[in-house]
Structures are given as C-alpha cells and as structure tokens.
Amino acid sequence: MIDEQAARAAAWHIFDRHFRSDGKLDKVGMLGSALPRDAAVLRSLQALCLEQARQALQAGHHTEGRRLGDLARQLRKLADGPR
Q1: Which of 16, 37, 44, 63 is the most buried (most CB within 10 A)?
Q2: Which of 1, 80, 83, 5 minimizes the C-alpha distance to 44?
Q3: Beta-carbon neighbour count of residue 11 at 10 Å?
C-alpha cells in the first residue's frame, strides 16, 4: 500500500510524462506497463485528470477537456477493479 503523498507524486509524474505530453492519448490501456496497478495512484491520477479537464474546459479547450474527462472515467474503472 502506498501513502497519499507518494500516490499524488506518482500521479503527477505519470500525468506529466504521458497524459500532458501526448495529446493523442485517448485510452489508458495504450500506456501498457507505464500505468501502475496500485489503486491509490490510479485514484490520484483520476482526480488530477478531472481537475485538469475542468481547467481546460474553463479555458475554452473543449476537446482537451473531454479527452481528459474520458481518461478520468477509464482510470476510475481501473481503480475500482473488476466487478
């Protein structure tokens, strides 16, 4: 189990390296092994994507906002695990 601060740091690292730099990333599965399986990191990454999506929408970047929102939903499903 990972603590909250470490999960946030890991989420920022992944976001900066993969989500922000690659505007064409539309499925989290495309990250492959770069995507951690730890639920705390996935939840932190989901929250980060939602916040960045909100900021993008407020700035008028609707395509980017929708892309990040979709990624956040995919991350939530991964964090919740199989049903």
Answers
A1: 44
A2: 5
A3: 23
pTM comes to: 0.87
Phi, psi (degrees; rounded to nearest 5) at 9: -65, -45
Q: From the CB of residue 44, how many other CB atoms can be counted at a distance below 10 Å?
A: 26
Write down how long the chain is.
83
Structural contact between residues 24 and 60, judged by C-beta atoms closer than 8 angstroms: no
Spatial CB neighbours of 31, under 8 Å, sequence gap ≥ 6: 14, 18, 25
**CA-CA distance, 83 to 23, in Å (whole number)?**
30
Token pair listed for 74: 């995919």
